[in-house]
Design a protein that fits this description.
It is found in: Cell membrane. By secondary structure, the protein is mainly beta. The protein has three helices and 32 strands.
Length: 474
């Protein structure tokens, strides 16, 4: 047997006949040898946005058919939840999580042969609900100018940067086996830094976040490659292909948008290997919320989006060597949904024995235009919900008086916000105690007392005046 006959690739098997000949045929795919590179961030106290990069052919060892995201709370390691994602997706948002909770997460890729080995868990803590408004936002306007061996990083201060002590900058090579991450701390007045001694043509991830003595802020994230070393005479296919044409977007649901396009119109351009889709909310200045998707076809379903939010999208053609410029942007809005959170800061105040003042703020995540608020109240917290008294108010209202209540009674209140899709969750129950009916005077009684006292004082003043006038006449 010849040596070259024994060195088959992992995806090829050989069948030897009785006459010593060899027939090659494709074998089944093998499982991936490594997990996808993982990135995590939270855009609200109740979600985690999971992002990863597609595996190279050497690591996937076959066609990826799907991904699986495993996650669990740190204190409930035995309760592992999983979400399966299509092969053309590279991110997913986990919603309905607990604020201020440490979670363990990992992503596993699958071929037809099965899932690859599970990687080590990555830890991520969701923001605390009560301190969410005080957390430093990600620096805005993150820009990175890539050179062959360096990255020139610039950014603008965080919107709430007055309490910032400084900035931390991290840089790591995404597809490298080494897990070392370069980090540097900078003064709050520094908004530019050059990362040097990098390898040409490699994929890097750069993170910039504000920090103080008490907490770290959200990170602005950039991913891209350093420039390749210039070639003496690049082949024609090395030139980037032009962008796709006829970009079209249509809303599919409250969390997804269909995006379709046509092949580049320019003739004689390099063959397109795949497409990269850029998606972000319209007017966004925070680079950490810009999402990138990969597609080998001329359409993609952009998922894990926010309800009732307007997005702008652009598409890039990628050849064998490098990607071309992005197309012009198109805009589309996701459909509205039920509110994800109840009305905030519900307050109760007893005005008298029969009236309670109720005030609140709109939901943190309305998922559309609030068209109605619904207040439920009862003198028994254990009573079935359909037996509670109900009060409906217009969506622009933020306070109301609930009247015709009983005196010296404890009432329980809860409320929900509604969009055109339906009602969101109810707020936690709050209670208020109305005073006894005899402890306050009604308006007619108070008016009568004041009128009587006023008439009495007027009579006394008139009598004194007449008495003084009579003395002067004498």
């Amino acid at each position: 047997m010849r040596k070259e006959d024994t060195e088959a690739s992992p995806l090829t098997a050989f069948l030897y006949s009785f006459w010593g000949g060899a027939l090659a045929f494709p074998a089944c795919s093998l499982v991936p040898v490594a997990p996808p590179p993982l990135s995590l961030l939270s855009t609200s106290p109740t979600d985690i946005h999971v992002m990863w990069l597609p595996l190279s052919p050497e690591l996937s060892r076959g066609t990826i058919t799907r991904y699986r995201v495993d996650y669990c709370a740190m204190d409930k390691a035995h309760l592992v939840s999983s979400v399966e994602v299509a092969a053309n997706e590279t991110q997913v948002t986990l919603r309905g999580l607990n604020p201020g909770q440490m979670y363990r997460l990992r992503v596993v890729a699958r071929t037809r042969a099965g899932y690859g080995p599970p990687p080590e868990w990555t830890l991520h803590c969701t923001p605390d609900l009560f301190n969410y408004s005080t957390v430093f936002h990600a620096p805005t306007g993150l820009k990175v100018r890539a050179k062959a061996s360096s990255l020139d990083v610039t950014w603008q201060p965080s919107p709430n940067h007055t309490r910032v002590s400084g900035y931390r900058l991290y840089c790591r090579e995404v597809l490298s086996d080494a897990k070392d991450t370069m980090s540097v701390e900078l003064r709050k007045t520094v908004h530019r830094y050059e990362i040097r001694e990098l390898a040409p043509g490699q994929l890097y991830e750069v993170r910039v976040q504000a920090y103080s003595e008490r907490r770290d802020g959200y990170a602005a994230v950039w991913r891209g490659r350093t420039q390749r070393e210039p070639a003496a005479s690049p082949p024609p296919d090395a030139f980037p292909p032009p962008p796709p044409s006829s970009i079209r977007a249509s809303a599919n649901s409250s969390t997804s948008i269909w995006l379709r396009w046509d092949r580049p119109r320019a003739g004689g351009s390099p063959e397109v290997q795949h497409y990269t889709v850029r998606c972000s909310p319209v007017g966004l200045r925070n680079a950490s919320l810009v999402s990138y998707f990969t597609s080998t076809t001329q359409e993609i379903l952009l998922d894990a989006l926010r309800p009732s939010t307007r997005y702008e999208m652009a598409v890039q053609s990628n050849g064998l060597e490098e990607g071309g410029p992005f197309s012009g942007t198109v805009e589309e809005s996701t459909l509205p949904d039920r509110p994800s959170t109840p009305p905030a800061e519900l307050q109760l105040s007893a005005l008298d024995s029969s009236t309670v003042l109720v005030s609140w703020r709109p939901p943190v995540e309305p998922n559309g235009i609030i068209v109605e608020y619904r207040i439920l109240y009862s003198s028994s917290s254990t009573q079935p919900e359909h037996l509670w008294s109900s009060l409906s108010l217009d969506g622009v209202t933020i306070s109301t008086e609930v009247q015709k209540l009983l005196g010296d009674t404890r009432y329980y209140f809860k409320m929900a916000a509604l969009t055109v899709v339906g009602a969101g969750p109810y707020s936690p129950i709050k209670d208020v105690h109305t005073p006894p009916a005899g402890h306050e005077l009604d308006v007619p009684t108070v008016t009568g007392i004041l009128l009587g006292v006023s008439l009495g004082l007027l009579c006394i003043i008139l009598c004194v005046c007449f008495s003084l006038r009579g003395h002067r006449t004498r």
